[in-house]
Specification:
The chain has about 375 residues and is of the alpha/beta class. Helices cover about 45% and strands about 15% of the residues. The protein has 13 helices and 11 strands. Bound molecules: guanosine-5'-diphosphate and magnesium ion.
Length: about 375
């Protein structure tokens, strides 16, 4: 059993950390209120059976609820959720929480009941249960799926007579939710592209440069500050030559400023950057220094859907040091479960401006809107 201790303000806060550190299999072992010079906090002990102390050794990783919610996975899952809820209940009792928070708690319980089809009058073939299973099978987290289904139930589940009708409504709900993060403006003249190696920065720049230069017929300039590898410069040079736009190569802040001056007459400028390990603080610091510009620019973070949900969240967080404005999702064509996009975007709370869905320059790119994103999330379809 692997055990970790947390000191947090609320159990809820600990839940996310526990999930992150120990995975979805983890359970809360105990909670204790502590009061000292630093104020009131809760000590939470959480553990995960790693198979070394017997018990559920060799259990497969957590899966979305099985087709039949009352199956063995369902019961195990339910037990874990109930342990967490009991801990939360104890904490709330001790703290004498307000009515609002009790309401929140009740809602969680109801979501949980919905999740397992345990609510009176529901069965596993009920459209809402089918919707829930579809959403989790898409990769949407259980709590988000349960919240979406609970919202559907609140607004009148009787009208939802089929899984399809439920999914159509869920698509609208997700679209509305994502609209809150939508960018108000059309973006800036200078567009920088950040992201790890191989995410698709250079390819995406080539696609957009073609779109702007050849279709929108505006004056485009390219800059690359990715001078670590000769091949990287050559790659963009080739695209620049084919599209017929100038390319500037800069290796630091002063060089970048000069390049931008030389491209002053251009309507749109795309800047390519090197990708490295985002855990390397010097890399992010180097980029920050390089982009210390007098001109306003738009920072785009590229996230590839071939990466795991956890690493996408980590990338989103770490690249936050560059104060990026927008997200571009790449390799959507290689993603089997696009529901994770909802978990990631809902957490990062940033607008998505484009989705790329293939290697073909300039064709495989689509403008992203809340509606197209919702479609991608619920149906795994780009068009
Ligand atoms: N399947 C797929 N491959 C892509 C997509 N975008 C880029 N790639 C490929 O990913 C690889 C790395 O792309 P590149 O633009 O060099 O990444 P960079 O290191 O971020 O500049 C190349 O083989 C691209 O063809 C996409 O949307 N879908
Ligand atoms: Mg590149």
């Amino acid at each position: 059993m692997q055990v970790k201790r947390y000191e947090v303000a609320t159990i809820r806060e600990a839940s996310a950390m526990i999930k992150h550190d120990l995975g979805p299999e983890a359970v809360i072992l105990s909670t204790k209120r502590i009061q000292d010079g630093k104020g009131t906090r809760v000590e939470v002990l959480a553990g995960r059976d790693d198979g070394r102390a017997g018990g559920s050794a060799g259990r497969p990783p957590a899966e979305p609820p099985a087709a039949e919610p009352a199956g063995e996975t369902g019961i195990g899952e339910l037990t874990r959720e109930i342990v967490s809820l009991k801990a939360m209940l104890r904490e709330m009792n001790e703290a004498g929480r307000s009515r609002g928070e009790w309401g929140e708690f009740r809602e969680m319980l109801e979501s949980l009941f919905d999740m397992f089809g345990l609510r009176k009058g529901t069965d596993s073939q009920h459209p809402l249960n089918q919707v829930y299973r579809h959403l989790t099978a898409c990769g949407i987290s259980k709590d988000r799926a349960a919240n979406l289904v609970a919202a559907l139930r609140r607004e009148g589940a009787k009208e939802i007579t089929s899984c399809e009708a439920g999914l159509a409504r869920i698509e609208q709900c997700i679209s509305q939710r994502l609209a809150a993060y939508t960018q108000a403006d059309k973006g800036r003249r200078i567009k920088a592209f950040f992201g790890p190696t191989g995410v698709g920065k250079t390819t995406t720049i080539a696609k957009l440069a073609s779109l702007y230069a050849l279709e929108k017929k505006v004056a485009v300039g390219l800059v690359t500050v990715d001078t670590y590898r000769i091949a990287a410069v050559e790659q963009l040079k080739t695209y620049a030559r084919i599209i017929g736009v100038p390319l500037e190569v800069a290796s630091d802040n002063a060089g970048l400023k000069k390049s931008l001056q030389r491209l002053a007459a251009k309507d749109v400028i795309f800047i390519d950057t090197p990708g490295k390990n985002c855990r390397d603080e010097r890399y992010l610091q180097g980029l920050r220094e390089c982009f210390d510009l007098d001109l306003p620019f738009e920072a785009n973070l590229l996230l590839s859907l071939t990466a795991s949900e956890e690493s996408l969240k980590e990338l989103g967080k770490r690249f936050g040091a560059l104060a990026y404005d927008r997200i571009i999702l790449t390799k959507v064509d290689e993603c089997p479960r696009a529901g994770v996009v909802y978990n990631v975007i809902d957490q990062l709370a940033k607008p998505v401006s484009y989705m790329t869905n293939g290697q073909n320059v300039p064709f495989d790119i689509e403008t992203a809107s809340p509606a197209t994103m919702a479609r991608l999330i619920v149906r795994n379809a780009v068009h």
